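Form 7-S
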Amino acid sequence: MRFLKLLSVSVIAAAFIVALAVVPTKLCFESGESYTFFCGDSSKNCKEITTVSNAEFKKLLLQDICGESTVYRNFNLEEYLETVNGEVVFVEKLSDSVNYYCKADLPYSVSLYGEEINLHVCIKSDAVKVASPIIFGGY
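Output:
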């Protein structure tokens, strides 16, 4: 009986380790000051979950992820676009920021103004927020 309990625990532990190895936990972005996951099935019901550490582990625990974002203090748009094979589709200038809506090799996307967008970069004077597909909930 004791052997069967030990065997059961071992099988469950092994299954958990295999699940962690198989489940894709790669983040869209290198984690910056904070990392946010957008969960839901549309922007209407999008819930933001932000962490300042262990974003990869946090991702494992979430369901219905429809986007990701992070905040950087230092960021070079041109260099980053090269790393994700990105191109700027349109730019929106506001009083406190400049927003770049782009096509890139990232997993999430939305349709904006008839274009498929999967990278949104919002540059402010003190920080930059990048998101795929877009920054839900504002910045």
